[in-house]
Amino acid sequence: MKASRISLLVLAGSLSAALVVVAQGPVTGGSETVARPKKGSTNNSSDGSTAAPAESPQQSKIPSQFKKGKELPEGVATYSTDAVTVTVDVSVLDNKGHFIPNIPAGNFRVLEDNVPQKISQVSKGEAPLTIALVIEFSGHFQQVYSEPWFQTLQAAYGFIETLKKEDNVAIVAYDLRPEILSDFSTDRSEAQDALSRLRFPGFSEANLFDALTDTAQRMQDIEGRKAILLISSGVDTFSKLNYGEARKAIQNAGVPIYAIGLMQAYRDIMYAYGAISDSQNMTFLQADNQLRTFTKESGGMAFFPHFYGEFPQIYRGISDVLRSQYVLTYTPSNTARDGKFRKIKVELVNPENNQPLQIKDEKGKPVKFEILAKPGYTAPKPVE
User: Fold this and answer.
1) How many whole angstroms separate alpha carbon 286 and alpha carbon 331?
2) Within 10 A of 76 (CB to CB), how many other CB atoms are there?
3) Per-state percent for the chain, helix, strand, coil, to nearest 5
4) How far, in Å, are 4, 172, 213, 242, 325 from residue 246 at the CA level?
5) Residue 113 — φ and ψ, nearest 5°?
6) CA–centroid distance for 139 within its chain
7) What contacts 145, CB < 8 A, 6 or more positions away?
8) pLDDT tens per residue, the chain (384 residues)?
9) Got the DSSP string for 234-247?
10) For the purposes of burial, counting CB atoms within 10 Å of the CB of 252, is it exposed (0-12), middle (13-18) or buried (19 or more)?
């Protein structure tokens, strides 16, 4: 598959408190090499073109880090570090999906492969978002003017309208292959223009696994608050990757995925009238489970709306989870550079007795809460 290019807007912002615990932070350090362009210079790309001069922080873009197999251009200074620091963005939600603020730093505990880690810093704040909107748009379900076609466009346009002006969004549509319709930008007209191209689907294939893993891998080196919003039936028809390979790639990429499962009420009606067979209904149920797995294992959430009126509440929930979070930082006790996957678990405990933390509301009643967290990260490989 030909690799498309995504560039990233330079982001600036502070982190703020959150009510749901979601871990999605990047792992830095190891033997990785980071490019740092020389001040006042331009870089020549592999095709001989010259990069444009830097603009203001809200408008400037940096050369793509996601083009697979790309070599570092000449004249670029590099540095490497042996330190490994893990940053985990955490959200804690009550049973109504609201963020629980003001949790003391001492109540957080991080386990890496079931071994408690020493947390060096707990911060909280709010920051702009970098979101890739990945949209299924194929002739398999989204035939022009059909109900799934209309619902897909309604969900995509509705989400764009909820973003703040400082948020960056890219639009990726997929059928036989993913296509980047618009790059990351704070300019909403670019996203609107991209969505306006979604009118007549091209191919009848819906290769979810390939599109989702490709986008996650391209976003894995982006710093700051990032996520993928997947609008999809969850059905995969012809991907090169199988389900297990896709799960592993998504876990390693470390980008939280939030999914909106399409056609819930439509499927129920069609099945009740016999327009969908038992085997087809089982395919849809399996697709829902795939969306739940992808989102849970990446530190995100899955939603399955039956009515259009549910969309605004879903968008608010995603925004609350992503914008306001606790940020935990620690240096792993396991210093082995083996390239293996390390499991992460975030807990809330009472430091006096090391028992699970009890949270109560203003009336003194216990509050049930949920911690959403990325399940882990891949350790650095040995230095060659």
Assistant:
1) 39
2) 14
3) 25, 30, 45
4) 19, 18, 6, 6, 27
5) 50, 45
6) 26
7) none
8) 433 333 333 222 332 333 333 333 333 333 333 333 333 443 444 444 434 444 433 333 333 444 444 454 454 444 444 558 888 888 888 877 778 888 888 999 999 999 999 999 888 766 788 999 999 999 888 888 888 999 999 999 999 998 989 999 999 999 999 999 999 999 999 999 999 988 888 888 899 999 999 999 999 888 778 899 999 999 999 999 999 999 999 988 888 899 999 999 888 898 889 898 999 989 999 999 999 999 988 888 899 999 999 999 898 888 878 877 888 899 999 988 888 889 999 999 998 888 999 888 778 888 888 888 888 888 888 764
9) ---SS-SS-HHHHH
10) middle
CA pair distance 199, 195, nearest whole angstrom:
9
- On whether the CB atoms of residues 350 and 132 are closer than 8 A, the answer is no
Alpha carbon separation from 214 to 3, 145, 305 (Å, rounded): 9, 29, 26
Rounded distance between C-alpha atoms, residue 320 and residue 169, angstroms = 17
CA distance 4 to 6: 7
Domain chopping of the chain, boundaries = 9-31+79-384
Task: Give, rounded to a whole angstrom, the gap between the first and last alpha carbons of the chain.
Answer: 29
Structure tokens at 6: 């995504």
- List, in order, residues 6 or more apart from 286 with CB less than 8 Å away: none
Assigned token pair, 25: 């932070």
Superfamily of domain 9-31+79-384: von Willebrand factor, type A domain (3.40.50.410)
Judge if pTM exceeds 0.85: no
Pairing type for strands 324-330 and 84-94 reads antiparallel
- Give every CB contact of residue 158 below 8 A, 6+ residues apart in sequence: 311, 312, 315
**Measured torsion, CA atoms of residues 129, 245, 113, 121, in degrees rounded to the nearest 10:** -10
The structure tokens listed for 311 are 């969309």
